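User: Structure tokens for this complex, please. No commentary.
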Amino acid sequence: MSQTVDRALSILPLLAQGPADLGQVADRLGVHKSTALRLLRTLHEHGLVYRQEDQRYRLGARLFALAQEAVENLDVREIAHPHLVALNERIGHTVHLAVHEEGEVLYIDKVESRYPVRMYSRIGKPVAITVAAVAKLLLADLPEAERRAVAEKLDYPTYTSRSTPNAAAFLTELATVREQGWATDLGGHEESINCIGAPIHGADGRVVAAMSVSAPNVVVTAEELLTLLPQVRRTAEAISREYSGTAPNTPSAQGSSDDR
Amino acid sequence: MSQTVDRALSILPLLAQGPADLGQVADRLGVHKSTALRLLRTLHEHGLVYRQEDQRYRLGARLFALAQEAVENLDVREIAHPHLVALNERIGHTVHLAVHEEGEVLYIDKVESRYPVRMYSRIGKPVAITVAAVAKLLLADLPEAERRAVAEKLDYPTYTSRSTPNAAAFLTELATVREQGWATDLGGHEESINCIGAPIHGADGRVVAAMSVSAPNVVVTAEELLTLLPQVRRTAEAISREYSGTAPNTPSAQGSSDDR
DNA sequence: AATGGGTGTTGCAGATGTTGCAACGCCGTC
DNA sequence: GACGGCGTTGCAACATCTGCAACACCCATT
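Assistant:
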């Protein structure tokens, strides 16, 4: 809508791929060098872009700070985190939390081997939307029309032989997930990794986030992983209750949570 | 420099403080509502801003994705290399760069007496994790629980009489390193070789790499080597600044590195 | 030393894009 | 049912942005 801003913002994803010099930026933006220079300068003044010693441009520190604040302001994450940690301590495997935003599904928290991480590993990264358990959960909650529209627009990469092959299969899978209230990814993204996931509901019943537990084949088989499903679902429900305010909101005594 | 972009970018820190509606944004920007609307729309299209259910605006999830992608594409070695060369040219001794990965500490760069070396000597090889200065620096940054777990699992080979003897001694050493912000290896790996090292920090404060300077006893004594510590630390700090994108606010002529 | 190609930078006139206004549609409240 | 608040749209006036061309600078080359 605003050409200047549009151009300026287009520089960011471009620089995310790696440092670039003025000429490269101008070229890939399709504008004159002087124009690119002014845009970069403005971005620089706001700290979103950093100029390294070889004069090339990179994303700057303020962007990281903003990203940090943005994630911290997501209150689902804040509420869910202790539950995720508790679950992780019991079952040991990696636990993820994800949300759906603007056509993407992003991991916003991760607990791995009793090692809570910020801005690390996959947090912030879009997930493989056609196969991930959390993605299925989040998309399954969309109104049917939108669900179909989204499914049609997606690509269906064949990560493994068990990846979702096409829109029809995906919609069928979503219907299943919607009905049963949980989801799996059994080797659909990486051959040797299985996931099980459950949805987190808001006060109005809509799915606001999804969580999953992942483990490699060599540690537990898919069947064994599925035996953990009740625990995962109970955790998701506990988070839902607290998030939607239906919970005994005892702000202290968090030990009373029933996500055992 | 560019008014439109400047205004648009000013919205981001504003929203970082919490969600705001159109009127608030317009007011705090000092522009007309319609102007603010257009800017917000542009930010929205780029995913930097998200519109929540009550129509208020928040920071968007793409911010993470960007920050995430940027850190992944950041190459410490590339950034550090010129600094290491500069330091080497001043002090002459061998300079190493190392990272922590999958339970190992690996040298990823080395500069030896005006001999910029890649794929040579120990680059890529695991270091003696219980004694090397860089290993101490990298392990000292781990959360306490993991630090202890790692220390318990290691072997403590007696390379020399001054090698770290056991887990308890190692943890004590790590605590010291953590506190003082630098590390040494005085004859712990090879009787006649001393090292001093300093950590390189990322934008989130965590230690992403470590560098060290090594010299044989016959060239400089341990005491003499320690006099170089300030230079080493300054170099590490300069690399940290550049790596984390902490821009000198002076838009122009910030001279250059202060790792002198 | 001098030349040349490669950068990034500046000033400027033209015109494109942006601005603020005023009016409209919408929704909840009084 | 009218009011007030809020977001949205179309438009004309204007300020801002654009691309050009020339310049400054650094480095490698001759």
